[in-house]
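Exercise 7.
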Amino acid sequence: MWQVLALTASLLSAFAPQSQVNAQAVIPNWVSQTFTFGWPGTYNSTMTRCRVLNITFTPRPSAVPAPVPPYELILSLANHAPFVVNAGSSGNFLWPVNLDIGGPYLLSMYDSAGATGGTGPAFNVVADTNNTSAHCPVAGLQSSTLNFNVGGSQVQCGTVPITLSGGTPPYVVSLVAEDYPPKRASFAAGNIDWIIDIKAGINAYFTATDSIGNGAVSQFFNIGASANSTCLGVAQTLAPGSPALSTVYPGTGVASSTGTGTAGSTATSTAKSSSNLQVQISSKQLIMTALGSVVAFAMNA
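Solution. The predicted structure, written as tokens, is:
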């Protein structure tokens, strides 16, 4: 049985400038999800090293414009730079899990226009028992090349101070959470106050890149419980075709008044056009729908 990560169509139909709850903290937009990806079988919290996954990716029927190949897999692992794997353009990709033993890893997917296929559940890599490692050399993720510190309270609606140094601004910071599309924003300097507008219980990383390709990934964390729910449903979703980075923040924790800036060279490209449609994001729900031999996991983030 196939499993595919997806968002409801309403979640994908809007573009608006970056949202904020107060003048001292920001809630960046969701990246639009124009396609889904998955592989045969059920998701598991462990993957065997050198097992070959047949990853398939399919445009969402509601996506206008359609996803733009080629595609990329982005792997996140604590204390390493985000790792990019070229997944080609054909709609499926045979990927040997040629990763170091350990984790947790998060796997996200993007097209060449900066739209996403979402992020899968966290997984750890375990040793293979069939001695196939010789046939799939370890990819060798690079250690973090930025000084990246995530502090504060990593709870639902908590404000997280982030500091970045050792790179060349602007910086692109992403919140990568399992079973959610990523959130992404560009900052002109390295001091950021970010509100975690995802419900408690979800595993996540913060990732960062600078304008010349340096990168870092935070420690892995589970979003803690909180009585505060005022941040949920505040952020907007970038419509397909709208800029993946619609606002450049000055980096002092205060959002800029305009939303016309773009980031420098990052792990993924940015899209090229915009839309004026808007939508509010509701609280997360997990809906399982049978589509013949396909099981689609649809979520409101």
